[in-house]
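Sample 1 of the test manifest.
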Amino acid sequence: MKIPLSWLRDYVDLDESIEELTSILDDLGLVVEGVEMVGEGLEDVIVARVDEIRAIDGADRVRLVIVDAGEGPLEIVCGAMNFAVGNHVPLAPVGAVLPGGFEIALRKMRGVTSNGMLCSARELRLSEDHEGLYILDDVIEPVVGRPLLEALGMTRDVVFDISIEGNRPDAWSIRGVARDLATRLGREVHSAVLATPDEGATSATYASAGIEDPDLCGRLTVSVLRDVVVRPSPAHLARRLTMAGMRPISNVVDASNLVMLELGQPTHPYDAAHVAQRTLRARRARNGETLTTLDDVERALAQPGRGLGDTGEDCVIVDGEDRVLGLAGIMGGAASEISASTTDVLLEAAYFDPMSIARSSKRHALRSEASNRFERGVDPELALVAVGRFVALLRESNPEVRWMAEPLDVAGNVPVPPTVRLRESDLQRALGVDLTSEDVHRTLEGLMFRVSGEGPWTVTAPSARLDVRSGAAGRADIIEEIARLYGYSRLPRRTPTWPEPGALSDRQRIRRRLRDTVVDLGVHESWTPTLGSDADFDLLSPGSARVRVTNPLASEESVLRSSMLVGLVRAWGKNAERGLGDVVLGEIGNVFTHPEVATMPRHTRGGAAGAVSLALPEENERLTVVLGRDNDDARTGVAMWAALATRLGINDVVVRSSDGAAFGLHPTRTAQLVERGTNRLVGYVGEVDPRLFGALTTMAPRRLGVLDVDLDVLFELTLDAELDQFVSVPGRYPVAIVDLAFVVSQAVHAIDLAEVLMAAADVVEDVTLFDVYRGASLPAGTRSLAYNVRFSSSEKTLSESDIGAAREALIEAARALDAELRS
Amino acid sequence: MTTSPLAELSTHVADLIARIEQALTLADLLVDEPFIVGKRSILSTLQKSLGALAPEERKDAGARLQDARRGIEEAFAVRRALLEEEARAEQLEADRLDLGDVVISQVLAPLSVGHPGIVAATQRQLEDVFVAMGFNVSDGPEVESDWYNFEALNIPPAHPARGMWDTFYVDLGEPETVVLRTHTSPTQIHLMEQAVAQDALPIHSVMPGRCYRRDTPDARHLATFHQIEGLVVDRGISFADLAGVIETFTHAYFGADISSRLRPAFFPFTEPSAEFEITCTICRGDGCRTCSQTGWIELGGCGMLDPAVFEAVGIDGDEWSGFAFGFGIDRCAQMRHQIADMRALIDNDVRFLRQFS
């Protein structure tokens, strides 16, 4: 909210510097987001009258203007076209420095000397208007040669742009900000100048008002203003509005806006001539009703909205024929708008249920200055005070206006301000400090709370503080107000300790081991998008059930990823285009599976009040690595897995080739990683499917290795390995090494044969595959697997015959898999 | 009278179809492509000859030719897809590799050095500071129900405070009831619910994780980002403890010459609430462009747990009290490494990744 300092000073005496005020406001939680110096640089600008306009030879964009600024004719070259002889305009003479530091110098253009500059409102930073010169005749009674600031009734001013927090409905006004400052500084809040209703005929003889749904409209006041003359606001009021960021429109509309900015009460003026039976009533909109709002949009009312608990309730204002005039508290309709011919005004000042306004405003995607305030809670007692201020302001330009006696005032349901009991121990417990009773009284009473007692205290919130709740929550709200006004910076600090040690969970600790290991193995850790497109995931599995976002920023970002492969291959491709493809990219992150197809959908509390059980997507944490170094392929993927498993102590996972094992992976160069004991799938290793590669990169076809691991499983395996703390001491006797090559069917896994060999004799210490041979010399459908076998004993040195016997035992055992020793 | 140029159209079509069917490999088909559907096709020749016809005839002949062309193109595309599939199958078969037979010692993997992600590494540093201060670390899911992301945090449906978070809704259940979490705070609710169910209070935990806000990315914001959130629920915890924890953390992570201050703010789930600021890490408090000459920069939000939150999770606020705080991990990384544009974090440009070790 933009707060001009001069306006603030109407309510509280302030002699602090701008810096001091900024810092006090910040410390009150009224954060100053910007400070604008208004009028700075206008000291030298004066009022000039246009006496003559001449064309300049050869120039069609600029003209020579002869003005009088009190010291005789002055020649100025000017590019604006919106003025005529006799108009008064602002002149920045030679030597003037305009806002922003632009210095006016003697200039020669088209052979003519220009003795200054005639200015637009924007050049003077008085408004956004840059259509041409600022024609002063429209605004004031101009006097030639008078300083512009004086002529406009302006003094230099400062405008604070303050961000008002959502729990401070009371602070969304000049007076509210002034009240915070006054309380902090120990000063008085000045009262507003208010008009009172005139004597004579009562409002009820002219108009009527009613509330049909008291839950939606807590108070409806209707004031009748007669003998209204619609004309522009006086310059100083128009300036105030402009400085506060609103456009002056007419004295009636401006008064409404000024009162809202000053006191926080939105009001709505209707042209009484266009309100049937001069009646305003508040009620629920009915299904089928429509309204064309001031922004010229026809809106269907009472339509249930999206989101929990939105039944489509709209509060509307209707006339005596039950026609909808406006969306209560949000925006009016065009039909009863104030116009130049308006003479009688019905002025609505009301209290509407905040949540109802919030829902309607969200559902209709319609926000206004009024709805912003109503949805946070406008003081229900403010309505007629605001009208009093409205009339006082309107009288400045419309002294003849009459406010009919006894304004209509209909009551609905209004929240009762809570009363909360506060003990010294509550303050000590919440803030860790003992505050004096004087502190409590001073801070709360400054904010209009009623406080009795010297501790414990009984505190009643003012009607303006609808954010203050009852019970324990209300106590917290009140304690915040005390702390805020007392000053957070004055509160003590203490670093707490507790006996429980801090620690990572096993999963987090193992995740760190994994991350360190893959980085050591060459992975550049990446961060690819969680949200992708249908086309992306069609590449992996066409038409599968996907988890979607209903309101994506772009359609390419509407699907939650089911795999990180797409993102990583694309990232690799981009790097490769820059000549940086010789790299391994990897990511640790979550992938999502739709609950309808998930093996383990997550069930969680959901719905209103968390009362129902909802099936949410399965979130599976994975490690995906794309190996793109020059010689990388499926084999380096296998090698990386082997290194990773070794590092994490996992030794019971086997690599099982399996056609079409996983989406996006090369169908014949992919294997599953399987835990042997349980057949649990740990992940995949292989290559990127050439088709996926072609679709995601612009590079010439090549092999990219892939490792993709399910971390839910991997973490368990690693933890098991950590828990198995047994370490064996190697035997002291010599080791015998034997190489054995077997011809074996392609169908037999190399690891399975190795296992058979391991189990064939007690003296086998280890079996390692060291060569694979395929060739014409071997029977069809077979290959040769050569193993390095280590024999040892913990009891003795193995003799030749021991070794021979063991070797025979291995050869014999291999026959169980139809493996024949290769001769 | 001259014969129509299209007199033998059906024969030509039959020839072309036969030619398509005769191609046995993708390569053969592609060699023939210009003659079947390209410029050198008989259909293209016929097309040119239509120019000689009277306008009326030309229109009719043109339409017939167009039909014929469409039929040929379709047959060509079908054949092409088939042959491509065959070629792929053949290639895949030729590629076949039994990964169980890979001899690890024979794989010549190049020696290469990797780099940890800047966000993950920052997260780890932050976790380490908090673990040393006695906190546990907790993870939570990225897709949440309205209850966890909003309602239990004292942000009821349609409450204007929801405007503080630009929310991505997930297409599950009733409209707008499932979200991509907009902050890590839902993990607080999970932790407190669990602690209540298992009678396992107190809680001293930090919760790092990925969050989402529907906000067009710019140099300072990403739609996907990381937060770390802290939660303490214990006996006798006050605002003084909160301020102390923030200050201890600030010194430990940013350095002894960087301190913190709190100023009032509003969050629905804490009361009293505060925004916390730290000494500007660029100018060390002297005032510079980054801190708008104030010497302070905003880091995150914090406050005492709101009684409404305790009520939602079933914690007795007379016995227990607590505080929460949260801030951006990416933002810490940005500040610490002076990253000019946040979007570099998601570009995965190796030139960026390699600078971090």
